Amino acid sequence: GKFAALCRIYSGQIKVGQRVKILGSAYPADLEDVTFNTITAIHVPTHNSNEERVKLSYRSLDEIGAGNVVILHGVDATITQSATIVGWLNSNSSSEFDDDEDTEEQCVFRPLRFTPAVVKLSIEPLRPAELPKMVHGLRSVLKCYPGSHLVVHDTGEHCIYGTGEVYLDTLMQFLRQYSDVEIKVAEPTVALRESVAGTSVMGIVGETPNKRNKITITSSQLEAPITNALTLYQLPKKEEKIPGHFMQEFGWDLLSSRSIWAFDYERGSLLLDDTIPDFDDVTSKENFAAAKPSIVQGFRWASKEGPLCEEPLHGCKVKLLDAVLAPSSIHRSSGQIIPTIRRTIHASMLLANPTLLEPVNKLYITAPTSIVDSLSPLLTKRRGFMTGDSPVGASTYSVVTAYVPVMDMFGLETDIRMFSQGQAMVHSLFEYWNEVPGDPLDSSIVLHPLEPSPVQCLAREFLVKTRRRKGLNEEVSIDKYLDEEMKRQLLLAQRSGMDEGDIDMEDGEML
Question: 372, 397 in Cβ contact below 8 A?
């Protein structure tokens, strides 16, 4: 049950008893992903060779320098996939947060990338008293499966995200053996993403609870090349090179490229500052700059949980159009700005034709050439399709390439093996996010239990079932995101749009 961290030292010296700062894989996007620990032991892998075999052993050291690959003990408690370990400047102080020099943003190594975990499994112990034991086992097991992660919802639901059925089945078997706890497992589900297909019909004005700050925001769909570059971490590391990269690669103008405030690499979204500054009012500019960290934090919070079914966002571009801030820093604190930004972004998304996205896997099916054409019906009834096949040299087999939504992949491998009498083998991996057919906010759709829904009703079905599972109200209402003044403006905008439509119809009839 003990773990250690395998590290490479790039600069400086490290010694036993040294206090270090551990920057997690979510830093600096999540400034709270920082912990402090003390190195308890340092081991260097060595080997003793003879004529028969090579035996691996470890040598303990008190201090070691840059360029070495070492095993560190005492720092693994908060590391799940990867992390950056830096020396703590104020290691002799009694407090971890009283050194101003150490609070500066540190440079981190790019986190390791794994196949997105899109299959979700909800678990709970058979005996509630064994919940702490199960959680301890989960944290240890997830370190052995870096492609998975754990999410604990506000309702207390523990969800494990993995890459597929077999992956999660192996993980659960290991968890039962390691923790020695009887675990109840729910039916596996698929992780969704929320996005928008248009632009907000109007700027949404969000007012802070103290009525002293007003912020106007719109949401729109982010271009696909930019979304792919964000999720693949293909942007320059240095901030000063980002505007030039956007101008050359994506055709943005200079003003828009310099207005980028924040990225959400994992969810492929960004925040733009589209306000018109008042160069004569120096105080407003300083207040706006001071509120930037809170605005960015509110954007990251909003991108973690969308307004439809509290799933992460994907491919959204959020624009900050205007900001009227209080002159006193007390009245524009983080507690006022962050929840207001989140609420306003969600309201602007609901007015920009919100959509649900589902993961699609790419399949490589190795099967006898004689049954390749017969595989197409198996894929079609699961909303999949074949893109081609290529023969395997010096054999009677072919490799079929196909795409199938993950939502309909449960049991597909078993069906293919039974159809081919065990001669076919399926390999799948995540490929892209695809829009779910239908309107998720169409409340006129009637869902019948134990009956498959038509294709154009899938978005509504996914929304309702996801919200039921999370204990949310089935209907998504924009009223809880808007104040009374904003509701009246929205109602007037909708009425004016209807009146213009009637006038255009009358003009057409006259013509």
Answer: no
Mean pLDDT over the full length of the chain: 84
Q: Which residues contact 440 (CB under 8 A, 6 or more apart)?
A: 308, 354, 355, 356, 459, 460, 462, 463, 476
Q: Identify the residue with better confidence: 420 or 92.
A: 420
Tokens 């961290």, located at residue: 5
pLDDT tens figures, 358-404: 999 999 999 999 999 889 999 999 999 999 999 998 889 999 999 99
351 by DSSP, 3-state: which?
A: coil
> Is-contact 153 198, C-beta < 8 A?
no
First-to-final CA distance of the chain? 81
Assign residue 161 a region (left: φ > 0; alpha: ψ between -120 and 50; beta: otherwise).
beta
Segment 290-295 shows an average pLDDT of 90
Token pair of 58 as six digits: 């470890």
Torsion of CA 131, 137, 143, 149, to 10 degrees: -30
117 Cβ contact list (under 8 Å, min separation 6): 147, 148, 149, 161, 162, 163, 191
Which one-letter amino acid corresponds to residue 32? E
**What are residue 356's DSSP bridge partners?**
194
Instruction: At 242, list the tokens.
Output: 């980002």
- What Å distances lie between residue 81 and 71, 167, 198, 455, CA to CA? 15, 17, 36, 38
Q: What type of residue is 226?
A: I
Q: Is 395 exposed, middle or buried (0-12, 13-18, 19+ CB in 10 A)?
A: exposed
The reported pLDDT for the residue numbered 100 is 40
User: What type of residue is 480?
Assistant: K
Cis peptide before 312 (omega within 30 of 0): no
Give the position of tokens 């992949």.
Answer: 409
Q: Is 351:202 a contact under the CB 8 Å cutoff?
A: yes
Residue 197: the pLDDT is 92
**Edge-first strand listing for the sheet containing 260-264:** 204-207, 214-221, 316-324, 269-273, 260-264
Residue 327: what residue type? P
Statement: residue 351 has pLDDT above 70: yes
CB atoms within 10 A of CB 187: 8
Summarised one tens digit per residue, pLDDT across range 209-220 is 888 899 999 999
- Residue found under tokens 């490229």: 257
CB-based burial label for 104 (10 Å; 0-12, 13-18, 19+): exposed
pLDDT at residue 316 tops 90: yes
Please write the tens of the pLDDT for every residue from 243-285.
999 999 999 988 889 999 998 888 889 999 988 876 556 667 7
The residue ranking higher by pLDDT, 201 or 440, is 440
Q: How many other CB atoms are found less than 10 A from the CB of residue 360? A: 19
| CA–CA distances in Å: residue 262 to residues 73, 230, 315, 319 | 35, 11, 14, 11
pTM score, whole prediction: 0.83
Residue 96: phi and psi, rounded to 5, are -85, -10
